[in-house]
Amino acid sequence: MDSIKQSVTRSVIGLAIFAVITAGLIAATQIMTKGTIEKQIKKAQSKALLQIISQEEHNNDLLEDTVTLEEGGLLNLPSSKDGYIARLDNQPVAVILPVVAENGYSGPISMIVGIESNGSVKGVRVIAHKETPGLGDKIDIKKSDWIKQFEGASLTQPMTEQWKVKKDGGEFDQLTGATITPRAVVSGVHDALSFFNQNKDKLLSTQPSQQMSAEGDSNGH
Predict the structure, then answer these.
(1) CB distance 85 to 66 below 8 Å
(2) Where would a tag sit more exposed on the chain, N or C end, judged by fewer CB atoms within 10 A?
(3) The pTM is what?
(4) Considering only CA atoms, which of 131, 147, 181, 194 is closest in space to residue 51?
(5) Do both 98 and 117 map to the same domain?
(6) How many Å apart are CA 127 and CA 125, to the nearest integer?
(7) pLDDT in tens, 78-134
(8) Looking at the structure, do residues 46 and 122 belong to the same domain, yes or no?
(9) Distance from C-alpha of 42 to C-alpha of 80, rounded to nearest angstrom
(10) How many domains are contained in the chain?
């Protein structure tokens, strides 16, 4: 009887040790995996930002020099997001803002819009969308150069009434076989410019990690 108890005890202890070791290995793997994923995300973010403003045009760390933008407002953010401040020798030269155009053909279109300190568009990149392959997906820089037509545009060039696709009497090209998608992007870029115009002084004087509402009220701390 004692031998049976001893055998059971050894089995229980063995299982307990195995469980502890397994849990430790899983936890260690999760920690290492999390670090790898975070590095990959940071690398992807940096790559997207550098498509808008080159390394030669700024000398700060964009991923560290941020302003927290609260959800909603002109930028139509579903949750708080980071805006990025590009500086050259500590002087702000551009702001990169996230914006969501809700009225895409197949759903929301997430973008980042780079705006120079003079209020002109530095560049636009689509970050996420579900637009139709071969048609609306040409808003993606990997599919076509369509998105580059916004570079140099501002709230006054063209004037607000011209911030439409040509089919609607505006300045911007639509895509062959797709009009709804370009309309949404044009509107989203204009919203980002409007947000910048309303909050220019705050954005350009922002210190890293300051917080702003998407309507522009500063909650810095």
Answers:
(1) yes
(2) N
(3) 0.76
(4) 147
(5) yes
(6) 6
(7) 999 999 999 999 999 999 999 999 888 889 999 999 999 999 999 999 988 888 788
(8) no
(9) 17
(10) 2
